[in-house]
Amino acid sequence: MHNGIRMTTLVKRAMLVCAGVLFTYEVAFGSVHTALASTEDEAKSVQLVSEIQTSLAPKEAPKHYNGQVRKVAYLTFDDGPGKYTAELLDMLKKENAKATFFLIGSNVKAFPDLVKREDAEGHYVGMHSMTHNYKKLYTEGHYVDEMKEDQGLIAGVLGKSPVLTRPSYGSMPGLNEALRNKVVENGLKVWDWTIDSLDWKYNKMQVDAASAKIVENVLAHSTNPTEVILMHDIHPQSVKAVPGIIKGLKEKGYELEAYNENEHFPLNFWHDNRM
């Protein structure tokens, strides 16, 4: 009888422990749901490269350091490397700032030494397609094919295969569900941007005036803890704007970092968290 009472007591204790675990689980996951909803509510509008993009790119939840929100800006440069890239790399090195480069396949072939230098100096090298042609990439569905070819060229130079792609013209509307499924199946990732510097708009403007406009555009829209800034290292005004952008971002408390595959966060206009 004594043993029976003891076993009954143990069973009751076990049931109470289970109930406690279930209660903790419910509370914890309720908190997570609330936090996610709050993060979504606080997302900001995205600055777009053209009228093609019409949706918001989600941002990574901010990290904390010593109890304070850590602000990180990612300078990203499309379409290179090119004749201004070496000057840009000199600027980044001088300012101890890192960046992310999305390369066109033909330029990988033309400037392999610049590709090596980008990687050697701590920047991230990713893919931006072979043709930069909307019809071929999206209408004809060759997005993944071109990115894989570009990836192979980069791997031939660096001895490693990057996974991050930057969609030409942005991911919306061209990167439809079927293409996104292929992206995921092939182990690739996609980054759009949170800020468009609009550097491409000022090709006909005097370089100093154009670079000042670019700096103004970027700094005016740098308001959230995580910013991914779209630029192009094939335009002289873009490169000339970089020191002013870095100075302004640092004054706002940002650190300038390169993309890290081990710390990937989704950033695409489709809100597709798989890529």
Automatic annotation (TrEMBL):
<dbReference type="InterPro" id="IPR050248">
    <property type="entry name" value="Polysacc_deacetylase_ArnD"/>
</dbReference>
<dbReference type="InterPro" id="IPR002509">
    <property type="entry name" value="NODB_dom"/>
</dbReference>
<dbReference type="InterPro" id="IPR054858">
    <property type="entry name" value="PgAcgDac"/>
</dbReference>
<feature type="domain" description="NodB homology">
    <location>
        <begin position="71"/>
        <end position="257"/>
    </location>
</feature>
<dbReference type="InterPro" id="IPR011330">
    <property type="entry name" value="Glyco_hydro/deAcase_b/a-brl"/>
</dbReference>
<protein>
    <submittedName>
        <fullName>Polysaccharide deacetylase</fullName>
    </submittedName>
</protein>
<dbReference type="GO" id="GO:0016810">
    <property type="term" value="F:hydrolase activity, acting on carbon-nitrogen (but not peptide) bonds"/>
</dbReference>
<dbReference type="GO" id="GO:0005975">
    <property type="term" value="P:carbohydrate metabolic process"/>
</dbReference>
<dbReference type="Pfam" id="PF01522">
    <property type="entry name" value="Polysacc_deac_1"/>
</dbReference>
